[in-house]
Q: What sequence folds into this?
């Protein structure tokens, strides 16, 4: 990176550190911070959508839809995350490839499952075998987003399902008395009021989601914890210009600071949202706000 | 949810409209944490014995190759499901693994594994606590021979476990432990080396016989003209052919 970094063995102190912290390998960890933030930024709204869909389905008066919603919540919440990430993602990937295989290679005569192997025609591979590495990485990232969203969506669905039930019945009755249809009651009365009940549960989920990103590496997406472990491990002089003993403690300490800062910022933002949502609500918090004003 | 799935699938199909030739790019899967076999160098790229070997094999077999890293734990499932086309990660050829994947001919001799413990410590290798990486031949060796096995997901952690006293000794490939012992005074080799495994080969899907044949031929040609031996000596991998 810097011009004086050509022979790190002769450097010491801060100059050495400045070279060490700007190696190509360290740039990867800085880059992975961005990956993690991007993952969270995309996953959170998508998971909330899944959750909303799941909760709305579970409440539905149309029985099959309600079963579907409840099954989604129960099954996904019951399966350990790590199993979900190891098997579901591979199955999802193979599902896409199978679909493409059916469309693109109708005259393929060999079986798709050959023993352990999953073999589709080359045109059906996803991404294509000759695609650039960044395409593979983006695809892996999208799979990760989808899987995270499905998993956290199920938890969010449960939270929202509970929140919808917590809205005082009197509110809905009043809406009915005014002649609103069930659909109108749902969108105009129930949904705006449920968030205040859902937020504590959702904020828990958000905190868990922030810390769940190491699961990414199971999908081949390299996150900050992977790089901290890799960079912190003891290095011998034969394979690097910057040999050092086991420094994982320092790297994990940096992660600790990062996560604490991140969760602290989240807390502040969530507190603000809570304040806004409480405004004018028929809850103790809303009442307190009204008196204070 | 359904719309999203269908949407994603449709998008994926459009993205793949270009025609692909079978194996126009061969993706080489490695771990990147096992020097001298494979590791990530300062520039953040895959480096090591297997990097040089793999690039040379690809050149000889006239293949375009691309390197990807994957965690050791899930390295076989991801090969089988087609996320990459070979495993080139210091993986010894064993009967157990052969049930799931195929191997090319070996490109290293069966490498002795060695025990490393704290310098000067008296270690009971038969009954003590031995660290090894999960899913390696060393881990199954320890488990079969009566010692208490503690497993770690990366090779580096197995050595760290000895340093911090969690394990009495670590069992790993000697070529991996050699530079560590040479450069540090706190750990040393202990006990006899053990010979396990049938040498290291490239792991390839069973259905991929064409690719296996290409790599087999390339490895043979490197064995024949001595270039493989030169690489083994350069990276101090162990016995030559």
A:
């Amino acid at each position: 990176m810097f011009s004086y970094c050509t022979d790190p063995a002769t450097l010491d102190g801060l100059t050495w550190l400045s070279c060490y912290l700007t190696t190509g390998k360290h740039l990867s960890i800085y880059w992975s911070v961005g990956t993690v933030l991007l993952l969270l930024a995309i996953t959170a709204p998508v998971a909330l959508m899944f959750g909303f869909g799941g909760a709305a389905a579970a409440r539905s008066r149309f029985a099959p839809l309600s079963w579907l919603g409840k099954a989604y919540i129960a099954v996904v919440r019951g399966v350990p995350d790590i199993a979900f990430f190891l098997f579901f993602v591979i199955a999802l990937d193979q599902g896409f490839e199978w679909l493409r295989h059916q469309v693109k290679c109708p005259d393929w005569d060999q079986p798709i499952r050959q023993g352990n192997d999953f073999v589709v025609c080359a045109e059906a591979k996803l991404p294509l075998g000759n695609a650039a590495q960044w395409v593979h990485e983006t695809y892996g990232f999208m799979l990760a987003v989808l899987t995270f969203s499905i998993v956290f969506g199920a938890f969010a669905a449960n939270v929202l399902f509970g929140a919808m039930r917590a809205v005082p019945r009197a509110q809905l009755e009043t809406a009915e008395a005014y002649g609103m249809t069930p659909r109108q009651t749902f969108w105009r009365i129930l949904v705006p009021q449920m968030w205040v009940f859902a937020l504590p549960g959702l904020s828990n989920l958000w905190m868990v989601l922030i810390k769940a990103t190491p699961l990414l590496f199971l999908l081949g997406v390299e996150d900050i914890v992977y790089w901290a472990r890799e960079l912190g491990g003891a290095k011998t002089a034969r394979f690097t210009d910057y040999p050092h003993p086991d420094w994982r403690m320092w790297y994990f300490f940096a992660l600790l600071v990062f996560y604490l800062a991140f969760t602290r910022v989240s807390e502040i933002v969530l507190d603000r949202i809570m304040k806004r949502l409480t405004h004018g609500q028929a809850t103790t918090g809303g009442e307190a706000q009204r008196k204070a004003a | 949810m359904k719309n999203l799935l269908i949407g994603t699938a449709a998008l994926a199909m459009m993205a793949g409209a270009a025609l692909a030739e079978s194996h126009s790019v061969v993706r080489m899967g490695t771990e990147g944490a096992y020097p001298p076999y494979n590791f990530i160098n300062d520039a953040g790229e895959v480096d090591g014995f297997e990097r040089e070997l793999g690039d040379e094999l690809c050149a000889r077999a006239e293949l375009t190759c691309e390197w990807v890293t994957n965690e050791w734990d899930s390295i076989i499932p991801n090969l089988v499901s087609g996320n990459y086309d070979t495993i080139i990660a210091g993986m010894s050829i064993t009967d157990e693994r052969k049930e799931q994947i195929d191997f090319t001919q070996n490109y290293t001799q069966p490498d002795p594994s060695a025990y490393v413990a704290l310098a000067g410590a008296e270690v009971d290798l038969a009954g003590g606590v031995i660290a090894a990486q999960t899913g390696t031949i060393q881990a199954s060796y320890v488990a079969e021979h009566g010692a208490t096995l503690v497993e770690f997901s990366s090779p580096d952690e197995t050595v760290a476990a000895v340093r911090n006293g969690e394990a009495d000794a670590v069992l790993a490939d000697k070529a991996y432990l050699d530079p560590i012992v040479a450069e540090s005074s706190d750990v040393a080799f202990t006990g006899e080396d053990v010979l396990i495994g049938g040498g290291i080969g490239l792991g390839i899907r069973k259905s991929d016989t064409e690719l296996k044949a290409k790599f087999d031929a390339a490895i043979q040609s490197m064995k024949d003209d001595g270039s493989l031996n030169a690489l083994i000596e350069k990276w101090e991998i162990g016995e030559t052919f």
User: Anything to note?
Assistant: The domain at 112-195 of chain B is CATH 3.40.190.10 (D-Maltodextrin-Binding Protein; domain 2). Chain B touches chain A through 61 residues (CB under 8 Å). The radius of gyration of chain B is 20 Å. Confidence is low (pLDDT under 50) at residues 10-21 of chain B.
